[in-house]
Amino acid sequence: METIYIGLFFIAVAVAVRFYPGVLAGYNSLSNREKENASANGLPIFASIVFGAMGVISIAGYLASIWLNKPSLSGIWILVTIVGMIVLLVFGNILANNRAR
Predict the structure, then answer these.
(1) Cβ(77)–Cβ(7) below 8 Å
(2) Each residue of 27-59: pLDDT tens digit?
(3) CA 18 centroid distance within chain
(4) If residue 46 lies in a helix (H) or strand (E), which one and from where to where?
(5) For 29-57, b where at least 16 C-beta lie within 10 A, e where not — what string?
(6) Residue 91 and residue 38 in contact, taking contact as beta carbons nearer than 8 Å
């Protein structure tokens, strides 16, 4: 059941990042020019999509574990979190540091 709570938390973070990009770690330490560049490249939107996908995949993994009667799948949120954070770090850094299109 905690997997559903974690999935809902990821979805709530996705909504918060979409409307308040300052909740992203390190976003407030960027200069104004870098913030404009990151926003123009779509960093807040990308981060909210990744967090939303992490939430949906976590909830879907829990439902799949019930449907397949495999309780070991309910811990999928750990893998989802690790992969999602790697994706955010790599591609978020690219979006934050590239010049605006």
Answers:
(1) yes
(2) 888 888 888 888 888 889 999 999 999 999 999
(3) 11
(4) helix 43-67
(5) ebeeeebebbbebebbebbbebbbbbbeb
(6) no
